[in-house]
Amino acid sequence: MANRASETKAATVTADPYPAQTPAQRFVLVLSRVWAWVFLALLIIIFVIAVPISSGGSVNFVTLRNSQNILVAIIPVLLLGLGQTFVIIGAGIDLSVGWVMSFASVLSALAIRAAFNSGVPLFFSAVAGLLAAVAGASIVGLFNGVIIAKLKVPAFIVTLGSSFIVRGIALLMSENTTVIGLPRGIRSYGNDSLMYFIRGEGGGLYFITRPEVSGEMLRRTDGILPYPVLLTAFVVAIAVFVLHKTQFGRHTFAIGGGLEAALRTGIPVPRHIIKLYVLSASTAGIAGFLSTLRFTAGSAVIGDPLLLSSIAAVIIGGVSLFGGAGTVMGTVIGALIIAVLTTGLVMLNVAAFWQFIVVGAVVIIAVLIDQSRDLIVGHYKSEQPP
Fold it and tell me: CB of 5 within 8 A of CB of 267?
């Protein structure tokens, strides 16, 4: 009975959380939901026009190679943001994911190297690296979740403290250097693609197997759908299903919408909060593993600069900082916006510090839109009869 009540509340939260009284209010609320999509489209249009002009027509923004580079670039930010999406919808925050990714990168590199040197085949060595990364990251998430849920310590403090702990452990395990000595073949798992396309004369489309070419033909070869992109898409699909189609997702929305109400409806809030932080750390672990495959090395600092970008992607994607509202696809769009912005500005030869300014401005705009949406809803509700 309690579970049914909790599901009813969660369904109420997700069905239509932003009713509007007038057509104008409804328009603003609808715009607040789709503005990220519109902004992404406008960005692409701007760069499609500006990049050829600035390069004298020698460079285009929309090319097969550039699109694949953008997809590869969003992988770590998106994976860090996926777990963060669940945590923030549940009215929490996880400041440790960047260093958890670094920790997982070191763990996966050490596991792959040890397994391969022990005679384990390359594929199973890679699997060992994935398991080590996810397991190690999950332990950090469990540590965060237990302290937050059981001891009632604010998530900001716990995850900030654990980020320093994990940072120190990662540097100790890597001996403050990059973990190298991995088998050379491991690089193919992080850089090969499902398909290859060779442009121009003598070219064509190749599936799975990289064509053996060199010289000019190698420069005309583009990979389509790199394996890390496919794995990330699979993780995103699972996250969409879990958040929007399962009891776990409904409970997450309910907790973010009102902790006391969630407790009264019978939701096991402490246990669920622990699961949220384990999930957040696990996706960061996958990001660390994919980083190791891509660079054929484990780095104890690879995730440090990505924390704020991942949070920015979540906020730009429309996840409410106050909890109870948001979507996985919104986070995907937020990550795409950041990747398109940085890529386009680089192609326009804009100085690097302007990238931080522009992304910061977009984050502030996203928060303002979120606030205006909540103000409209609050004004509407205050006008309704009790």
Answer: no
Cα distances (Å, whole numbers) of residue 266 to 141, 195, 271: 24, 49, 12
Please state the domain count of the chain: 1
Q: What size, in residues, is the chain? A: 386
Q: How far, in whole angstroms, is CA 284 from its chain's centroid? A: 8
Dig out the tokens for 214 from the structure: 């060199």
Q: CA 351 → CA 90, 307, 357, 358, 363, distances in Å?
A: 37, 22, 11, 11, 20
Give me the amino acid identity at 166.
Answer: V
Residue 16 has pLDDT above 70, yes or no: no
DSSP β-ladder status, 193-198 and 221-226: antiparallel
For the chain, what percent of residues have pLDDT higher than 70?
87
45-60 residue pLDDT tens: 999 999 888 877 778 8
pLDDT on residue 14 = 44
Is 66 within 8 Å of 48 (Cβ atoms)?
no
What pLDDT is recorded for position 31?
66
Structure tokens at 314: 């979540």
pLDDT level of residue 28 (50, 70, 90 thresholds): low
Domain of residue 317 covers 2-12+21-383
CA torsion angle 212 213 214 220 (round to 10): -140
pLDDT tens across 205-231, in order? 888 777 777 777 777 788 888 999 999
Position with higher pLDDT, 238 vs 26:
238
Half-sphere exposure of 285 (CA within 13 A, CB side): 23
Inter-CA distances, 213 with 51, 225, 318, 332, Å: 30, 19, 45, 34
The CATH number of whichever domain residue 198 belongs to comes to: 1.10.3470
C-alpha–C-alpha distance, residues 114 and 128, integer Å:
9
Please state, in angstroms and rounded to a whole number, the distance separating the CA atoms of residues 239 and 234: 9
pTM for this entry: 0.86
Q: Which of 386, 378, 385 is nearest to 18 (CA)?
A: 378
